[in-house]
Amino acid sequence: MQAIPESSWAIVVSTACNTFESILAPITETTGGIGRLIRAKFDHMIDVEKVLAVEAVASADCKAKRATKNPQFPRPNIFIQVLEHASQETDAGIRELWSNLLAQEMVDHSAHPEFGRILTRMTSDDARVLAEIAGRRPTSLSAAFSEAMRRAFAATPLGIVLASRDPRTFNHFHLKNLGLIYHEDGFWDLTTIGRAFIKAVSDPELTVDVPAEH
Predict the structure, then answer these.
(1) Contact (Cβ atoms closer than 8 angstroms) between residue 93 and residue 127
(2) Same-domain check for residues 140 and 80
(3) pLDDT in tens, 168-205
(4) How far is CA 174 from CA 67, 97, 121, 127, in A?
(5) What is the pTM of this model?
(6) CB burial class (10 A; 0-12, 13-18, 19+) of residue 131?
(7) Range(s) of the domain holding residue 97
(8) Residue 175, in any domain of the structure
(9) Measured between alpha carbons, how far is 34 from 170 in angstroms, rounded to an integer?
């Protein structure tokens, strides 16, 4: 973004603001005060935060529309959570997972605020380790998450890097502390929370038809 000429940057920011207004309009019409609260939070962001936030929100809107004919406007608390964190996330891959979380919310209002709180404590390396653990037991859900990860990190400078084969890294124990994985009989596996989380941060176009895992 630093390489963009000032005149072009002004156009980028203006376009982002207009896009945000068009997406926000439905909630403003139906909730009044909440819509004004969201707009106020957006208005107080610096320009680069506005661009990052709208990039995530607009992407979520497109994903939700591809996944369902009748996307719903997200609940305000989820929308605000994604808006605030995506606007400050410098990792493009993690920002894409925020977009997926919002898109899932727009499909079926399934995004629990706790999923967002977990995501704020994760790095790209954590996400890669989680994807590797999920992939050890191939299911439609783990396949959807792996594809979502591939898409999320394909545009990053390093792309997807294989997670460490060491099963006792800090990332493993951090994910355990987050309640996403557990260790038993020498192997790591997903918890119920972990399975719900990876569905929540996967592109809904990939997961909308995935049955619940047991």
Answers:
(1) yes
(2) no
(3) 899 999 999 999 999 988 889 999 999 999 999 999 98
(4) 32, 18, 9, 11
(5) 0.84
(6) buried
(7) 6-111
(8) yes
(9) 40
